[in-house]
Amino acid sequence: MIDKKKDPDPSKCKLVKIQGVQTNSDVSSSVINNQEEKSPYAQFRGSKTLFVTDFSSLAWCEFQQHYALIAGGRKETQAMKAGTEIHNELELQDHDIVSILTNTKEDSWGIKLYNLIFGLDSLLTSFKTRELPIFGFVSGLFVYGIIDQVEMKQMGDTFEYEWVISDTKTRMKPFLPNQTNIPPSVKYQLMLYKKLFDELAEGVIDDIKIFQTLQLNPDLEFSNELANFIKINCEDFNEKEKEFKPNLRNLIKVVINHFGKIWKSSNILEVSYKFQKDGRDLGSLYFEYDENQIENHLTKSTKYWKGDRKPEGVPIEEAWKCRNCEFADNCEWRLDKIKELEQKKRALIEITNGRT
Q: Where are the transmembrane segments (predicted)?
């Protein structure tokens, strides 16, 4: 929570942003170098953290996601770059950003929790926030994400106001797509945001399990710069400075307290579109949360991450996705499909020749 005496305008409060991470211990090296662990989770997520997009991207193409993990990430496209720039501009409209250099992984998570407290405080004071961190567990795997926007809106014909979760996407064309053209990956991304947000709002926060999973020391005090910032800007620490040491154990208590004032989000989810060329608003499309859909997708995705199954290629009718894929030339699924098609052609020629 921001100290209102120091910054009376809640729309221009300071938000901590990670500038860089210099950890004292490398959690990932021992996991990545363990050749006996073959699951994608063990191989590519040594930090023990999966991201919301790790689940939603699988709905676009599992092989593309798998190859991106092997390659250490996808090449940044113009669309991706434009999207990042627009997101940054939108965030700066609501608040200033302060960069703080972190020295430990506890510092890094301290910033995430502080940003979450800041966002919840914005929801309670101005009924809107952007770039809200959230987290939780999916089948025992820790998942982290950042919601583009949460805003209180009046939805439908009712007089009730609800927290509406939305995600901002950019388009090369200056008009909205058809409702039926919202990609499943976008829907799953928003549905998982809602699922995690609602669980936190209901008080489902197992801090001990989180600290153990991420191998964090909850009692380690933050580095001086971050500790001083939190003491100055977080009212909960100002009021209880003597008993509240600036560490993860006490900061997550503030998170739990703030979420106790928040209620579950709307079942209507929003996709907000911006024109890639100049960032102007194109409007929004809405769809309804589907518990069965997201649970089925998470179950299937978790089996991939845990190594219980191999990645699957897209259906043949969605092979158009391969056109702009940077991994297409060496894609196992694509090459196998081409081989199958060639075999069918040869078989058809043989059958045809046998009839003449």
A: none
pLDDT at 188: 98
Query: What are the sequence ranges of the domains in the chain?
Result: 10-312, 317-356
Q: Write the DSSP symbol of residue 281.
A: E
Cα separation, 86 vs 79, whole angstroms = 11
- What gap in Å lies between CA 220 and CA 140, rounded to an integer? 25
Q: Which tens digit of pLDDT belongs to each residue from 143-196? A: 999 999 999 998 877 778 999 999 999 988 999 999 888 999 999 999 999 999
pLDDT of 35 = 34
Q: How far is CA 185 from CA 37, 164, 218, in A?
A: 28, 19, 34
pLDDT at residue 205 greater than cutoff 90: yes
Tokens 């901002």: give the residue: 168
User: In angstroms, what CA-CA distances link 64 with 55, 116, 346?
Assistant: 13, 31, 29
Contact 50, 134 (CB under 8 A): no
125, 126, 128, 133 alpha-carbon torsion, rounded to 10°: -40
pLDDT of residue 14: 45
CA gyration radius for the chain?
23
Q: What is the pTM of this model?
A: 0.85
